[in-house]
Specification:
The chain has helices at 11-23, 34-43, 62-71, 87-96, 108-125, 166-177, 185-192, 202-215, and strands spanning 3-7, 27-31, 50-54, 78-82, 100-103, 140-143, 146-149, 154-157, 160-163, 225-228, 232-235. With 240 residues, it is of the alpha/beta class. It folds into 2 domains: 3-125, Rossmann fold (3-Layer(aba) Sandwich), CATH 3.40.50.2300; 140-235, Arc Repressor Mutant, subunit A (Orthogonal Bundle), CATH 1.10.10. Strand 6 (140-143) and strand 7 (146-149) form a beta hairpin. The longest helix is centred in the middle third of the chain and has 18 residues, at 108-125. The two termini are 36 Å apart.
Length: 240
């Protein structure tokens, strides 16, 4: 799992980026200013595999952040996002140290493809450390051959053990809490992640695909996490 820092002061865009990156399996943190990004990366020396960096930020803009990082010999991959898509701005971004540059508005699939490219580049240069699951008081749910430990964010399915991301755990908990009734994508967005319905919902389907791989004996023929056509999804703890 890669760790990505999103530096974006527009809350709606920052939430959408976070949601879709986490749907791809990444761990994401968001800050709203260049100063906070530099503090994370240079002062606190927090490790990230890539940075999504807006240019139009309060205080230090994205160009300044990129330049300071490179001057400090910090070479985390940088993907710049900006409404300033003129050729001279693109060149300025590359000169400041950006690895890639994407003008707003952008296509989500293109953004994710660019991010995958940056992360591959990072892997080629050096391996980075991942995060640790947080252990809390016991919080376990059992169904079929599956045991879900929400405290450890872990699923045991027969002899297989899967580590969950926070977003996967939150979604699975919500579906279990609503066992036996259909849950719409809109409801998942609003009640699990507090996102408005305008956020792209393709990521919901990606989450469902991954959860099925964890809990279903045959993910192509799901019995616990079924599709309700035209409505959404439904969790069934004890299928017939």
């Amino acid at each position: 799992m890669s760790r990505i820092l999103v530096v974006e002061d527009e809350p709606h865009l920052a939430q959408g980026l976070r949601f879709n990156l986490e749907a791809e399996g990444h761990a994401v943190e968001v800050v709203e200013s260049g100063e906070d990004a530099l503090r994370f990366l240079l002062k606190d020396k927090r490790t990230f595999d890539a940075v999504v960096l807006d240019i139009m930020l309060p205080g230090k803009d994205g160009f300044m952040v990129a330049r300071e990082l490179r001057d400090a010999e910090h070479f985390v991959p940088l993907l710049m996002l900006t409404a300033r898509g003129r050729p001279e701005d693109v060149l300025k971004g590359f000169e400041a140290g950006a690895d890639d540059y994407l003008p707003k508005p952008f296509n989500l699939d293109i953004f994710l493809a660019r991010m995958r490219s940056l992360l591959r580049r990072k892997e080629w240069l050096q391996a980075a450390n991942g995060g640790n699951a947080k252990t809390n008081e016991p919080d376990v749910f059992t169904f079929g051959d599956n045991v879900v430990d929400f405290g450890k964010l872990r699923i045991s399915s027969g002899k297989r053990v899967f580590q969950l991301t926070m977003m996967e755990g939150d979604l699975l908990r919500y579906l279990i809490q609503n066992s036996g009734r259909p849950v719409s994508r809109k409801a998942m967005l609003e009640n699990v992640w507090n996102l408005n319905e305008e956020t792209e919902t393709r990521a919901i389907d990606n989450f469902i695909v991954r959860l099925r791989r964890y809990i279903e004996k045959d993910s192509a023929k799901p019995r616990h996490l079924i599709t309700i056509r035209g409505l959404g999804y439904q969790f069934v703890p004890t299928p017939d």
